[in-house]
Amino acid sequence: MSDEKLAILSEGVELDFGNGAGIFDQHYQVPEGTILGMIGPSGCGKTTTCRVALGLLIPQKGRITTLGRNPAQFRAADRERIGYIPQQFVLYPRLSVAENAAFVASLYGMPTRRVRARLDELLAFVDLTDARHRLAQNLSGGMQRRLMLAGALMHDPVLLFADEPTAGIDPVLRARFWEYFRQLRDQGRTLVVTTQVVSEAIYCDYVAVMRKGRILAVDTPENLRRMALGGEIIDLTLKNPEEVHRALEVLRRWNDVVRAAHRSPNPDAEADIHVVVEDAREWLPEVLNRLENQKPRIGVESAAPVEVSYDEVFIKIMEMDQRAQEARNG
Questions:
Q1: How far apart are CA 179 and CA 34, in angstroms?
Q2: H helices within the chain, ranges in order?
Q3: What is the pLDDT of residues 80-127, one digit of tens each?
């Protein structure tokens, strides 16, 4: 993909603060009109990664472009194309909702008529119309975050960074924020959203998994699941537990099966098998045919793809990186 179609391109970027803190050898790209979720534990470098892409921090090594330019050399016109929602509430507590949003717009020199029209539109978008005259200090934490989103969008940026916008808020409001983000994406904007909530991966077009300042993997949520598990899982329950070993022999001889294993030690699951294939829904009918066409027939009681949570996917990717690091260190 050419640089012109990428909102962000990072190649080997490093910024070492010492004592293991910083970001290291970061390679990632964000296509225009997509949502990139940066997922990782607190202190793994998500905020630093965003600040480098914003030009607020200068990397010591590597190359990065944001909207086609080196962010360290941004002009005012470049910054006007970007919105940023930091982790902490940074607007004025003694100004009203409307006054805060109008103040942000004034920083970009927006004319008064445009400010009024844009304000009405955005307050409706983030469900703050009825609170427009309320002081920011009297808003709930969730309402303050929505106000920050409205402020970041006042100048109509094409690229939005949101640093842990859903931290500490209830699941209903969290889902609503992602609804906002997807609407913005569908309007053609690009978003980079950091989070510690692993399950939010499902809302993103691409996910960057981070650990200790490094990006371990960047891919679609579906491909990350396949990478962590070696494929997708089909859960089979045989009619006769005594057929398990014969079924495993049949499946393991099949090149399209990545892995087949007995799903014990659960004593109540003696007839259960996990089969790993590239695409569970595509290969499920063929797996059943392979077993039931054996002579004598291997009967299947039930079969279904397994939906593995992203918490488990995230843990497996972390474990894979830990094992690789241990191998490198001997």
A1: 14
A2: 46-54, 76-79, 97-107, 112-125, 141-153, 171-186, 221-229, 244-252, 280-292, 310-328
A3: 899 998 888 788 889 999 999 888 888 888 888 888 888 998 998 888
Which amino acid is it at 243? E
Q: Are 197 and 171 a contacting pair, CB within 8 Å? A: no
Give the chain's radius of gyration (CA, Å): 25
Contact yes or no for 22/45 (Cβ under 8 A): yes
Contact 98, 106 (CB under 8 A): no
β pairing state of 61-66 and 6-18: antiparallel
Tell me how far apart the alpha carbons of residues 58 and 152 are, in angstroms, rounded to a whole number. Answer: 23
Render pLDDT for 14-23 as a digit per residue (tens, 0 to 9). Answer: 999 998 899 9
Give pTM, 2 decimals.
Answer: 0.83
Q: Give the pair of three-digit tokens for residue 316.
A: 């497996």
Rounded Cα gap, residues 49 and 229, in angstroms: 27
pLDDT tens-digit map of 174-228: 888 899 999 999 999 999 999 988 889 889 999 999 999 999 999 999 888 888 8
Phi, psi of 218 (to 5 degrees): -135, 120
Single-letter amino acid, residue 39 = I
Using an 8 Å Cβ cutoff, are 122 and 114 in contact?
A: no
3-class secondary structure for 108-163? CCCCHHHHHHHHHHHHHHCCCHHHCCCEHHHCCHHHHHHHHHHHHHCCCCCEEEEE
* CB 107 within 8 Å of CB 90: no
- In the block, tokens 């099949």 appear at 254
Contact between residue 283 and residue 236 where contact means Cβ atoms under 8 Å apart: no
Residue type for 231, please? Answer: G
Nearest-angstrom CA–CA distance, 303 and 272: 10
